[in-house]
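Intended use. Records like the one below are meant for learning the mapping from a protein sequence to its folded structure. Do not use them to infer anything beyond what is encoded.
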Amino acid sequence: MRGVKLFAICIDAGDPGKLATFWAGVLGREVIDGAVLPAAADRGFRIRFAESRAPKVVQNRLHFDLTSTSLEDQQATADRAVQLGGRHIDVGQLPEEGHIVLADPDGNEFCVIEPGNNFTAGCGVIGTLSCDGTPEVGHFWSAALGWPLVWDQDEETAIQSPQGGPKISWGGPPYAPRNGRDRLRLDLVAAEGEDRQTEIDRLVGLGATIAGPDPSQAGRLLMTDPDGNEFSVA
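Structure written out for the chain above:
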């Protein structure tokens, strides 16, 4: 068992409480502590919303892929998201592709995947956190979290907790441009009984870089993975 664990997915928001309410409605969860969605019974990620006044200017390098049990369920999820303040968007998806592409009220992209998708089968409502990234960064995160690689071919990688739940995947090239700080990030925490500095040193040894204090939450250290993606450690 590695000495750090994934505590939450952090999402920057102009109004954290409002965006938390949107995602609670889409995912069927409750909001706690003002702007946090606790992990679901299907082992879905805890989601934390952090206040940020920085505007969204480019497509995010991370997004959620939500699952569906039928075409009717897929459409119902998309309709519910729109009713709650989301919208349909075009990111270059082809007409024959079965997923529905949407954005939340802050413009963060996400997909509702068609039923019968083998890659997200059994992963829960959030099937995948899909990321831009190299194969090397997938290997970094496998080593960092102690999650095995469940996909590693054609420059694409994916990891999944040994306990199951959503996957985290990296799609290989081409990569979206980076402009400003990442709006979606991973929050890590040192496991109980583990020394935080020892774990930070281990992450640096794996290829991470220390960036400084995390401006979104006091007490967290902001770091970057080998691809330059931000994450924090408490």
